[in-house]
Amino acid sequence: MTLPPLAPVRFTNSSFGPVRPGSPALLLDRDGVLIENVATHVRQTHEVSVIPGAAEAVARVRALGYVPVVLSNQAMVARKLATHGQMLRVHEHVLALLAERGCHVAASYLCPHRGRDGCPCRKPEPGMARQAAAELGLDLSRSVLVGDALTDVEAARGCGARPHLVLTGRGRRQSAAAAPRSLEDVVVLPDLRAVADRLEAAARTGG
After folding, report:
1. Could you confirm whether 117 is annotated as catalytic?
2. Contacts of 106 by beta carbon, 8 Å cutoff, 6+ apart
3. Would you say 30 and 94 are in contact if contact means Cβ atoms under 8 Å apart?
4. What is the pLDDT of residue 3?
5. Positions of the chain with pLDDT lower than 70, given as ranges
6. Quick check: is 29 catalytic?
7. Beta bridge partner(s), residue 163
8. Closest to 160 (Cα-Cα) out of 133, 191, 122
């Protein structure tokens, strides 16, 4: 199996509509944030389970003017646990399930490489976020990156977005294991619904 070059696989949503230049992004990890984590990786479409309330939360944040974008490490391809085609089919299924629930994302970026491959886009590197910003015209300084792992936190810091760690997926375990000072700049919340609540409250108060 030949892997793609050291760059992410990109999905775009032609029906999303125009993105206003300089818009803030809602940058989303996928597994553990939008869909349930699977210990052996989500390799088949029947293994996809949307986390309750996640799709609706993304739709609420989009209504505030944020542009939803998915950024996901999928090293199962490089590890030969799944084929490139399986990865694509699973993600297309994820997008379809989200759309059924009123959640539409502007684009998705999937990195199929391992850390040792030296890929500049694999989180904790900020390459996927920066590529999304360049291609969609997003303002990362006004953006939020939501993940369930410390690698997501590092990617947020690297691209200049505000790091949010949710306790779904691996989040509870990773936040408990982290040194308290390492999370001083991180918003830690139970799930995506809580992220939407917080951003809506900030919008009401102008914060």
Report:
1. no
2. 12, 13, 16, 19, 67, 68, 69, 136
3. yes
4. 46
5. 1-7, 78, 207
6. yes
7. 145
8. 133
